[in-house]
Specification:
This protein is α+β, with helices and mostly antiparallel strands. It is built from 1 helix and 5 strands, in the order ββββαβ. It has a 3-stranded antiparallel beta sheet, with no helix packed on it. The chain has a two-stranded antiparallel sheet with strand order 3-4. InterPro entries: Znf_LIM (IPR001781).
Length: about 100
Amino acid sequence: ASAWSPESGAGLPHCQLCGQRVYPLEKQCCNGLIYHRSCFKCHSCRVQLEGENAAMLDNKIFCPIHFFELHEQLKATSSKVVNGDFDCQRPPTTDRIRSVSC
């Protein structure tokens, strides 16, 4: 694998949604997966999210409102237990923000 360089973008990870290269300043991590901040949107309402306000279910990103709505619908119609993961955060920019390992 090539080392990262600004000119070529070689060695950069690719966004899980659009497949394009993700540069460090546009990086959003969730569950160890990498996204562009602009691609990191609720699957239902398409609102752009910050990691700490996101949940994942079946590899889809949801805002808390739509995650809980979906969770309640699935609980009512299925015996399958549904677990969402709210452990998504941006790469650290201050001491108070911690990143999920990407």
